[in-house]
């Protein structure tokens, strides 16, 4: 088995992303979401980090800054269970971006409810209308 220290970066011919690739990660202030934001940022993607708790989201941004990974990461406070928060996020996103390429929703890993499921559907369909 190959260790992560010897793993090679993708070659130019297999690299499908660029700095213009936009990834949105919900629930990204800790855990898997935060790890994905770090990885995407290291690869040079433009990343939108969202968190329900603004102070925790800002702490995550500060951690990225310490690592030198904050230059292509933007933060928005998003409560995926609140349709008004989703609408505000979509308005904010549309004002700064043309489209997105990746949407990673990690909140369902922590909160299982019909409300959260419906909020994800609302977010997804709002963006479908956006494209």
From TrEMBL:
Enzyme Commission (EC) number: 1.1.1.208
Keyword set includes tRNA-binding: no
Signal sequence segment: none
Pfam family, one: adh_short
A GO term for molecular function: (+)-neomenthol dehydrogenase activity
Swiss-Prot/TrEMBL keywords: NADP, Oxidoreductase
SUPFAM superfamilies, alphabetized: NAD(P)-binding Rossmann-fold domains
Class of the enzyme per the UniProt entry, highest EC level: oxidoreductase
InterPro entries assigned: NAD(P)-bd_dom_sf (IPR036291), SDR_fam (IPR002347)
Assigned protein family: Belongs to the short-chain dehydrogenases/reductases (SDR) family.
Protein name as catalogued: (+)-neomenthol dehydrogenase
